[in-house]
Design brief:
Blueprint (H helix, E strand, L loop, with lengths): L1 H24 L2 E10 L2 E7 L4 H9 L4 E4 L2 E5 L5 H8 L3 E4 L20 H7 L4 H17 L10 H14 L4 H18 L25 H9 L4 H13 L3 H5 L6 E2 L4 E5 L5 E5 L2 H14 L17 H14 L8 H14 L4 H8 L4 H5 L6 H4 L13
Parallel strand pairs: 1-5
Antiparallel strand pairs: 1-2, 2-4, 3-4, 6-7, 7-8
């Protein structure tokens, strides 16, 4: 009996997934063209009489249905990224006639022998390797024709002063450039560490984290009509993710049985954070619609990681539509996650684990931001009349 039930289950499974494959194969196609109508620039959309695409097009603001499998929209109102996100689950999109991507010329990096190899051997992150390559190449270019091994601490300080005064680099970048230089002398050339201790570092301004209120978060989510966009922003806020952590997520990192998210964090540290029950349902709908192959959120090509810059634009545009006047950036959502948890009564130690902070002093900064404690403090001015 059990064997018979198993056979029936496997047969049903094959039927369901073979039907899904047929649906995938039956995806329509969309071709975009530039066209001039009555002296104005338009985008012509050829959709091969796909009923699913036609229904979506008819719902879009500013879309003119022309019949015969075509529609028009003014070029000024057309946004390719939004169009792609909306229609790619339903059709293959050929936008080569309206958009040409001009690749930026790749820079040739001049690095001493062993520099890049040692960075990779020590398993520095890709972002750190990229920064060190750029910064040390700049250092070598500035001292072109000179023997690097004969440069003094005064020479390095003079170079850094040039970068600060002429190139107006930030305090963070100043210290990162020093680290790239020190890596060569101390790691590659195996010099004495204390010898380069005379390099002047920048004193960074310790600003308090910027956070959004609950009302502002609600307003932002109200502007995110695209399911993929809503899932990405929701994940960052509800789990306290960094931008890179979100983009590096795979479908396997969503552990619904335990309501957790597995995160490959900064410095190759793995941690777990919260999975919202409301978001889990949204993610399931998203997965059924987009069918990502490798990454949880993919770009224009299957298996391609979603663009970091496109993610930034999504939040900025939503904040603008929500009428938020001050600056809003992705990392602010991570700060907001920690602050809102604190205001809900979550203890600092738990927040430290969810955020992936090594030192609880880093987490304690949210005490300065949270309103939970300050709201209970009576203002001395309000108490003057009580005497």
């Amino acid at each position: 009996m059990v064997f018979l039930f198993l056979c029936l289950y496997l047969r049903l499974y094959d039927i369901i997934f073979s039907d899904m494959d047929k649906v995938q194969k039956q995806r329509g196609s969309i071709v975009l063209f530039k066209e001039e109508r009555n002296g104005a620039d338009y985008i012509r959309i050829e959709y091969a009489n796909s009923q699913a695409v036609a229904l979506l097009l008819a719902q879009d603001t500013g879309m003119e249905m022309a019949g015969n499998g075509s529609a028009y929209i003014a070029s000024a109102a057309f946004k390719l990224p939004d169009f792609y996100d909306r229609y790619s689950p339903h059709a293959y999109i050929d936008y080569s006639r309206v958009y040409v991507r001009h690749p930026k010329p790749k820079r040739e990096y001049i690095l001493p022998r062993g520099y890049l190899e040692l960075l990779e051997q020590k398993r520095y992150s890709l972002s750190t390797i990229k920064a060190y390559k750029i910064y040390f190449s700049d250092f070598m270019e500035y001292h072109k024709g000179q023997d690097l091994d004969l440069l003094t601490v005064e020479d390095i300080n003079s170079y850094m002063l040039h970068m600060v005064k002429e190139k107006h680099i930030s305090a963070t970048q100043q210290n990162m450039r020093i680290n790239a230089i020190k890596f060569y002398y101390e790691k590659v050339r195996k010099g004495k560490r204390q010898y380069y201790g005379g390099i002047a570092r920048a004193k960074e301004y310790k600003a308090l984290p910027e956070v959004l209120s609950r009302e502002e978060m609600k307003s932002i989510f109200a502007q995110l009509s695209n399911r993929k966009h809503r899932c990405m922003i929701s994940l960052i806020y509800s789990a306290g993710l960094r931008r890179s952590e979100l983009l590096n997520l795979t479908p396997q990192d969503i552990i619904s049985e335990r309501m957790l998210i597995r995160i490959a964090g900064k410095g190759k540290k793995c941690r777990y954070s919260l999975l919202s029950e409301k978001l889990l349902n949204e993610l399931r709908d998203y997965y059924r619609e987009y069918r990502p192959q490798k990454w949880l959120f993919e770009g224009e090509q299957a298996g391609e990681q979603y663009s970091p810059s496109a993610l930034v634009k999504i939040l900025k545009e939503a904040a603008r539509k929500a009428g938020i006047k001050h600056r809003v950036h992705l990392h602010m959502l991570r700060h907001t996650f920690a602050t809102h948890l604190l205001e809900q009564g979550t203890d600092l130690r738990t927040i430290q684990e969810l955020m992936g902070h090594t030192d609880i002093k880093t987490t304690a900064i949210y005490l300065h931001v949270s309103n939970a404690y300050k709201a209970k403090i009576p203002n001395p001015l309000d108490c003057l009349d009580d005497d």
